[in-house]
Amino acid sequence: MKDIQQPGASNTVAIVGAGLVGAGWAVVYARAGLKVKVFDANPEITRKSIPLIEGQLAGLHRHGLIEEDPATILSRITTASTLAEAVEGVTYVQESVLERVDVKRQLMIDLDAIASPDLIVGSSTSGIPGSAFALGLSLSPRILIVHPVNPPYLVPVVELVPSPETSAATVEFAETLMKAVGQTVVHVRKEVEGFVLNRLQAVLLREAWALVDEGVASCEDIDKTVRDGLGWRWSFMGPFETIDLNAPGGVADYAVRLGPLYQRIAASRQHEQPWDETLIKQVETQRREHLEHGDLESRRAWRDERLMAFAAARRSTHPEG
Amino acid sequence: MKDIQQPGASNTVAIVGAGLVGAGWAVVYARAGLKVKVFDANPEITRKSIPLIEGQLAGLHRHGLIEEDPATILSRITTASTLAEAVEGVTYVQESVLERVDVKRQLMIDLDAIASPDLIVGSSTSGIPGSAFALGLSLSPRILIVHPVNPPYLVPVVELVPSPETSAATVEFAETLMKAVGQTVVHVRKEVEGFVLNRLQAVLLREAWALVDEGVASCEDIDKTVRDGLGWRWSFMGPFETIDLNAPGGVADYAVRLGPLYQRIAASRQHEQPWDETLIKQVETQRREHLEHGDLESRRAWRDERLMAFAAARRSTHPEG
């Protein structure tokens, strides 16, 4: 894309909060042709974001996931020394500051004081609803949640969650922008804890931990069940299309056949108890048998390589997205 | 593999029940070099299984997923006219008959009457525990659940579930056999409804349907959340490795940070209500907007092509399995 499809829009976005998530967002916007200004309240983090972005672009280049030269993309990214400098002349701010209500609220107050009347603000929060930090300001109709998966330049899904004060035009703008930069838009139409993505992850993880707790299966065997079983179809169809194709008459037929079984399974699981110390210790011990603590960091690099290989393979075998 | 690693084992297995699942199993065993005898109580189904298998082998060949000529693999597969003929001289029976307790029980009684003292029987049931149909026979120590995902020649995971009467040697035999033919073994150590795979699927689906019911998100947006988000990491890591890498200190650190959020999310969902007619109708309507009823069949062919492409891509990018 070359410009944001909005009257009066500039082709520059601001990244506020320049840790891992913010740096990943900078790559998303810059590779789509937009100019990006990066700012973090901590100048050291602002400074370090550039080599971080360079590394991410190098990985994308190595896997054939960007067509342009990494240096060309990097040249669209500059740093800013103050919040005012970062948002000056930009149409959109992607906020990825610390995941704390008070920190996000203060940022919104600061932005409210300096924002142009057109500025739209997307928050990367993975779980705090806008109602907790985005209400009661002039800016409020132009704030919404734009929740990515990490890293956003590899995993395309983005949840758009309006607060009760977010305007429809703001949601529409964010949808246009996200599609233009190649992300997949999911609309979360009510503010629920965990939005959609983390709710789905939460219920699966709760069941997984409970199965370990009861001695039904090991962590490793549960991981195998997903990565060599359920995860295959989910990774290109999602759960509804999967079951729609799994009964002769489609999803309604499936619901009649298997709904009662699923109801019994779900009803048999009480979710009230926390993961206690003994269980956490047990899971930790099992994981450390497969991956030592000192190898976590190198395994994260392995994961990012795999995600890039997955993206490259998916692009060639699944071009419709 | 060229023979089953077991004293006195023949290199022939029998497929009993030759529908979609049975035919898929025949491909798994034959491509691994074993001889396969296919039998269904309905001779018409026995007969039709051969062209079905031919089609599956052609797909695997097209995607570079088998090294041998499909005709060579097919030449290892023969049909049998009676159950006695099918199991004569074989060491292992893969049972994939109708998913009904009475049908499975009758088959076990019939097998018990004719089985050699070494015969081991694996049942493909996706949810009926062995205790419901496999107890109290001479054969009982040699019966276990060997539950595949459909189609088993593409999706490698297999759940091994012993009944209380299954011997440890039987589980060990099945594990050796499954690994030898290239499947991924998961041990389910207690008989729980839905085993591991369908329990994980059940809790995720229950949450997904509830989110549609509450108007939080559409079916299509929930599918996007998984296929363009959660499903990416799950398809090569599984849920435990995913969270182990998602907190600086690993899984225990993650549990302390995010456990309470996940507990609140899971506790906020009541699972007691069935999927009622209105909700089923709503989901059906949404799915049919994306895929007309008459296109279900062609979309299933699309799915199988995608699974093969996924398997081929995974083999090249993820050789360690």
TrEMBL record, chains A, B:
Domain 3-hydroxyacyl-CoA dehydrogenase C-terminal: 194-288
InterPro entries: 3-OHacyl-CoA_DH, 3-OHacyl-CoA_DH_NAD-bd, 3HC_DH_C, 6-PGluconate_DH-like_C_sf, 6PGD_dom2, NAD(P)-bd_dom_sf
Transmembrane segments: 12-30
Compartments reported by the entry: Cytoplasm
Record-level Gene Ontology MF annotations: (3S)-3-hydroxyacyl-CoA dehydrogenase (NAD+) activity
Enzyme Commission numbers on file: 1.1.1.45
Top-level taxon of the source organism: Bacteria
Gene3D superfamilies for this protein: N-(1-d-carboxylethyl)-l-norvaline Dehydrogenase, domain 2, NAD(P)-binding Rossmann-like Domain
Keywords of this entry: Cytoplasm, Membrane, NAD, Oxidoreductase, Phosphoprotein, Transmembrane, Transmembrane helix
Domain named 3-hydroxyacyl-CoA dehydrogenase NAD binding: residues: 12-191
Family from the record: Belongs to the 3-hydroxyacyl-CoA dehydrogenase family.
Subunit structure: Homodimer.
Protein known as: L-gulonate 3-dehydrogenase
Organism, scientific name: Variovorax humicola
